[in-house]
Each structure stands twice: as C-alpha cells, then as structure tokens.
Amino acid sequence: MIDRKYIGHTMAPFKVAVEAGRLRFFAKATGQTDPVYSQDEAARAAGHPGLPVPPTFLFCLEMESPDPAAIRNLLGLDYKRLLHGEQGFTYHRMAHAGDVLSFEQRIEDIYDKKGGALEFVVRKTRVSNQRGEHVADLRGVTVMRQPEKESA
Description:
This protein has helices spanning 20-29, 40-45, 57-62, 70-75, and strands at residues 14-17, 82-91, 100-113, 118-128, 134-145. The protein is α+β, with helices and mostly antiparallel strands. The protein has a 5-stranded antiparallel sheet with strand order 1-3-4-5-2.
C-alpha cells in the first residue's frame, strides 16, 4: 500500500523557459494549422505578445522537472505497474513564448479501489509565470496496479 502520510507533500519547485521553437514544433507535431501557434506575426496580430502556449503543452513542460521520477521514487512506485489514469488542466491566464514558468507539484490525494488492487496518486501542479501570476493548475492521476494474489 502507498503510504498515505505523503498526502500534502510538496516537491521542490522548478522553472522552465518557454521557447518559441518548441511551441512551433509542438504545433506541427499535433497538426495545429492555426498560424497563431506557429507564426510570430499572426500571434501578435491576434493580440498575443508572442506565440501562445497551446492547451496540454504545460504537461510537456512539467516533464522538464530536474527529476521527473521524483514522486514515483518518493512513494516507491514500481513503474512496470503504473498507468496514466487522468490528466486535467484549469487555465487562469495565457502563457507565451519567452515566459519562464514555475511548477509547484503537490501530492493532493492517495486512495485505493477494488480492495487495494488499484491505488491512485493525485498530483496537483500550480504553474505561475515570471511575474508571479497564476497561469494554470495541472491535475494528474497515476494508477498503480497491485500484483494479482495467487489462489490456493
């Protein structure tokens, strides 16, 4: 069982610079055809100071943590039994190329279902920009499958 004492535990915050080239690559890779996401002129004409960060790209930036496996290691999770259960985003303001975003991860909840056969870890990440403005909240749920018990 995952130790519930880690509910509320916060990880060390980290910062990631939003690079225009990565935003263009992401737009291309995801089939985004709106030039606002790939052309500086189109972004500015639409009222943005630079290329806007598209939905879900914050998840990519969150993976730039100095130790992307920190929560898994802290909780002793076996990556061979992990599933990505859920991902959610709540946006408060836009982020753009040139911003430096701070990520603060917190273990929001740990619970189980099916008599402990499935354990869930809920992670909430607060994202702020270089001005301290709240950009978004990310919510991720990781599911750990427990080994099946052998029958007698």
